[in-house]
Protein: ABC transporter
Amino acid sequence: MGTIKIKNIHKHFGKFHALKGIDLTIHNGEFMTLLGPSGCGKTTFLRILAGLEDPSEGDITIDDKEIVCVSKHLSLPAAERNLNLVFQSYALWPHLTVFENVAFGLKIKKMPKETIKQKVQETLERLQIAHLSDRSPGELSGGQQQRVAIARAIVTEPKILLLDEPLSNLDAKLRIEMRSELKRLHHELKTTIVYVTHDQVEALTLSTRIAVFFEGKLVQVDTPQQLYKYPQDLRVAQFIGNPTVNCVEAKVNDEQMTISSPLSSFSYKTKIGLPTVTLATNPENIEIVHESVPGAIKAEVYSVLPAGSETYIQVKVPQTKTILSIKEMGEALYEIGSTVWIKTNIERLNIFDPGSNGKIDIQLRPVISGQIERTKIDLQLSKTFSIGTFS
Ligand SMILES: Nc1ncnc2c1ncn2[C@@H]1O[C@H](COP(=O)(O)OP(=O)(O)OP(=O)(O)O)[C@@H](O)[C@H]1O
Structure:
């Protein structure tokens, strides 16, 4: 078991309010990633979980056992929390061999020699480093050292594993390799993992859920799929996705219940009460079409970036100078400067209040004019939108 319940955690460093009331439940066996830009408070939060830092306010329980309760002046020492922490810098003991590094925690627990030998051997094999058993850390590559650090953390079978940017010192190829190793390990061990990163691809690929931090606050906790498709905050939308999400300002006409933007124009059912909103959509939700079909907008190809299995295309919407990113699978051949037509899937459009960054949940109605010059246009029929004609 390894369920962590965190209630109303605050952390002040002098006058600086680093964590501002964090509430989060991490379920047993979850791979929970703490994601956010540099300085948002992820590491501080992890250090509080680990017992390396005390919060200024709040409670933490692990499997209903209180480990932190500031009002009762309670904070269990790190060693009594049944968790292990792996740092970004592997922090291996340089004078000990790989075997001795991994065996250390078991020796402290005074396990019999034979049991230690067997457990260490099993763990080294699991991480595919058994052949390096007699080497010292100085004789290992960065990736091998990282595996030793992880082996050392899991050999004692902690309920909870805390990982602080464990892959950030590895090169791009090794990072990808280690990502799948970590995912496989989590699947096999079923340990609760709390993982800190500022790399959104790492978060999306590894996690069962992601907790996104901004400026000391938890902004959204969701599965990677939900977070990517339905960000609840504009900052989350802008942080997740590669290439980054397309954001455009759109004018709201509450009298006519219409929103017009360089991306798409449509009507809605309930008043918004704001003069402008921000529309956000991921690059794969915009399609390049080669003629002026209903709902399409004229644009000019600005750049074409082939990336092997996919192609990133940027287009400029002439009247507005807006540049949009589009992702197409496979090889896409477009001439820079040529005219294309683009069509946005409005079902995959998220709408935000640019003031608060919060998501606006409004019921959208059909595209009323796909073109910047408003011409009479037939509306598309989709399962959620009704048919009609606007002029
Ligand atoms: N001991 C400290 N004293 C004062 N301020 C601190 C201390 N530790 C952290 N901070 C501040 O608290 C904020 C959060 O820091 P933290 O290390 O948790 O951020 P982070 O999200 O992990 O960033 P990064 O990804 O760069 O590691 C930062 O503004 C940092 O400067």
Remarks:
- The chain is about 20% helix and 35% strand.
- The longest helix spans residues 172-189.
- The two ends are 62 Å apart (CA to CA).
- The chain has two domains: 4-238, 243-389.
